[in-house]
Fold this sequence. Notes:
By secondary structure, the protein is an alpha/beta fold. It has 29 helices and 25 strands. The two termini are about 25 Å apart. One of its GO terms (biological process) is DNA biosynthetic process.
Amino acid sequence: MTETVGGSSKKTATRNGAGDKRLTVNRVYTTEGVHPYDEVTWERRDVVMTNWRDGSINFEQRGVEFPDFWSVNATNIVTSKYFRGAVGTPQREHSLRQLIDRVVKTYTEAGVKHGYFAADEDAQVFEHELTWMLLHQVFSFNSPVWFNVGTSSPQQVSACFILAVDDTMESILNWYREEGLIFKGGSGAGLNLSRIRSSKELLSSGGTASGPVSFMRGADASAGTIKSGGATRRAAKMVVLDVDHPDVEEFIETKAREEDKVRALRDAGFDMDLGGKDIVSVQYQNANNSVRVSDEFMHAYENGGRFGLRARQTGEVIETVDAKALFRKLAQAAWECADPGIQYDGTINDWHTTPESGRITASNPCSEYMHLDNSSCNLASLNLMKFLQDDGLFNAELFAKSVELVITAMEISISFADFPTEPIAETTRKFRQLGIGYANLGALLMATGHAYDSEGGRALAAAITSLMQATAYKRSAELAGVVGPYEGYARNAEAHQRVIRKHSAANDMLRTYHANDAAVQKVATRTWQDCIRIGARNGWRNAQASVLAPTGTIGLMMDCDTTGIEPDLALVKFKKLVGGGSMQIVNQTVPRALKVLGYQAEQIEAIVEYIGEHGHVVDAPGLRPEHYEVFDCAMGDRSIAPMGHVRMMAAVQPFISGAISKTVNMPESATVEDVEGIYYQGWKLGLKALAIYRDNCKVGQPLSAGKAAKASAEAKTETVVEYRPVRKRLPKKRPSQTVSFTVGGAEGYLHAGSYPDDGLGEIFVKLGKQGSTLAGVMDAFSMSISVGLQYGIPLEFYVSKFQNLRFEPAGMTDDPDVRIATSVLDYLFRRLALDYLPFEKRAQLGIFTADERTAQVAQDYGSGDVDLEGLRTSVDATSTKAAAEVEEKKKPQQDVKVGSSTELLELHLGTTADAPLCMTCGTKMRPAGSCYLCEGCGSTSGCS
């Protein structure tokens, strides 16, 4: 797409001793004389986003303009998150054209200003090509670009930051300050605390040091405060400690001990649900923790030896520990609460391009960006499905040309970008770290007939990643010939060239299995040869080129079925409709995969219909069992084994400058030994970082496996008592009330009878004409609910199940406390909750009276402390701020069968206590890499 040519008559000053070459840009996607906007059909849409709990509107903008092929979900997310200006004002963006132009024109102007292009014509082609690719969802920049570029705000383009802290009080307090500034901007940061002396060492005054874990408390409280103050996303942070730090055992057990506290307090009756009023007493919950293990430690673990813990200032060994016992403690803690993760220091620094400028000691919160302290990285991700041709072949040449253009744009952005601190600005401008990556790998593998956990699938993923990295570094070498290599290159030239050769050698070692991966690897091999040749002459413009980020929000913006390196979440999902509501559909990747596997149209139709009904492929009519693995997903009846995730990460890691944001999901039945094995295999397979999550290991899990329970079980054999429900009938004469209501024009009456000692005991609903089907169904429904109440089923259980059900009649009501209902049942159970449930339980369900909502607004905004930036962007300031919105976690039954994505997500995600509620719309988030993603509005808990 682009190439370097000799200097033109319009020479500009170059930096770092670069020559007078400039870039020429060739057209690939666009046609000369035709603007990309003129090639698509535009349409007007209304974006109205509601809170999933109570149906209240938290964002509304009507008449926005988007291409007709953009999904409703992508439209909603881009409009609510990325359009700038206050809603209802002329300054508010209302078209995707305005958004893309704001960003692309800024990049193009900066490219011209800093001497990247050979001529004005090249700048115009660059602008059109970038516009076409963004318009057609071929790639996307990370969220800070869409938030900030081209606005009056600081031009922050990076989502990933690494900080540094030294063993002084001034440095520790500055750490709190810098982290707060980054959180305020909606980004996350990571750092290594290993320079801080341990609690087993002395201060110069003679006293004993506090140790890094104690200072983590202050940082954790700061992150929690800023998060709850109305930031656009949850505060995201990473805390790393080296395995040879004397306080490493305390660090390992920190969050596991807090989980024990949560369980004890919950059993004592305190509100310890996510967002509960008592959860703030729990510490260390606002960070991901990781232990940085060395090769020396891992060899000691392998050999059953002892390992020395070293003083921070002198480096002398002050204590020795059993390596196996320490590694088991690490696995035990991760088994109990999913923290800490693990980072492999030897591998990380063996692939380090600038070791003469300092070691890599930490990562960003999602663990994909790893480089020097006080640095940052801007991200962009390509949509891999856009390069899959109708004949089933991956278009490697087009992919390489696209990478060239994207990496050029990312490099230009550093020339005009702003940064939260001066040390970060200085390091980033010296080393110019970039993080190109991709999304939709899981969908691509399925569409090409590959199982995610298969040799063929890993070969294709590795070949594509190798080509991406080779092309990015080749373009970086060409840019070095235009504007010079990065400032720190001369000092690190030998090391950088060594790492490039390691990438190339890993490519040569790839074993291919099919025409697709063989073709891609062939192009990659040629590109690596060019990269090494050009780099030897020019050096490289960027110290790093690639990462694999979660791609949460931007993945939804590009209408990707899967994010980052992840497999498909489920085979069925919900598609939002233009007129409102949604419909359940089978992922479009499924029929494409079936066609590739050789099935006929009639067979495909039958299999798709079966999947839509059952949510999985097991026993689907006509589907051969050997093809089941192609449709394995992250969860469900045929979920991918934990080592399947690890092997995929290992396949692509040799072709990534940074690391991979991904959490390895493990079943609840996994053992501590399983976790230990996963962490060990991660080191053996050459990963840089790894994190696990065992189902139901967080808050709310019964303490049946606790030491006290075990001791009790060993001491005596308990008598098994079988409990049967007993019906508590209402007396002949009981208090009752009748409520008349109107929902969407339909009139009805709700009769509710209570026990004399309080508590709802029966309901009767009159709706429709006597003798009609509707009236009969409502009578039967009422009797069923009444009998259930009398057998002791809590009212709040019924409310949680029936609120937000959507069917006609729906709409406005005549009840001031429930203004909008999504159905008659939604209204009825909200009304019953308001009349019969205490405030604490209603708060958990997100149901409040009009007066309570008014009081909440007054409490949040009455002091005049209004989030002006949130009002300006109309994202956070309009959010409903209800306290404690998560349902009580329930342990899923092992034999539960699910038939839709709704039931699947509720079973595996809706009951996961540490999956946060979206801070914008209140929807339960789902994992995306090492972070969380809201599919309702696109908010993420980390990089995007």
